[in-house]
Amino acid sequence: MNTERETAVRAELEEFIQTREFSCLGARAALKRDSITHRHYRRMGEASSAAENHRDLVEYVRTVRPLLSDQSFRTFVATFDEPGTVDELAYEGLIWQHLQLMHDLDSRSFGLDKGATSDPALPNFGFHTGGHAFFVVGMHPGASRASRRFSASAIAFNSLAQFVLLGEKFYSMQGAIRRRENKNNGSVNPSFTEYEYEQPARHFSGRFTEEDWQCPYASRHEPATEDFTAGLMGHGR
């Protein structure tokens, strides 16, 4: 790993989070509290980079799980040397290829988080690593939304358990984020206004997906027996 490059990208990430166009208040809070874990890899969608990302995210889960609360804002951000600037379809293919490689490794040793599933067609889908479910936010130079348009290809892994622990604060923060997005970027991300919580996988890459979109990801886990969205996401279903 090129530590000089990693340091430079980390500085770019911190600067990006503080721009007017960046809308996620949770990431801003994490930056302020120095609770962003950042790792840098060679190429998204490459087996060796996915294996390194998986190893680091498993270690992150072990560290962060006991620290989560209704006051915590923590995230793991993976950045990559490649690809550089690609269009949204190409990036979408690469991020799901990368997540699939990680999942294929993870599912050999770990299972599902409580109330979440690995089935991307369902509302309680989470990307699982180390038995912990995440909501994924893809960012890259070719993103159509300014709040996703980072100088390097990147993946932010946000704990679903953290969202659950926030309770009603989740909706307050979501409302503030959308007001900020509308003010600074001209509109709320149409992916959220169109699909809201019915299929979180649609939001991962940042591209606005077609109505008949099928997620290019196959779960290796058994079906979930619980659904955390029955309580948390009742506002939007």
TrEMBL record:
Pfam families: YqcI_YcgG. InterPro entries: Uncharacterised_YqcI/YcgG (IPR014988). This is YqcI/YcgG family protein. It comes from Streptomyces lydicus. The lineage of its organism: Bacteria, Bacillati, Actinomycetota, Actinomycetes, Kitasatosporales.
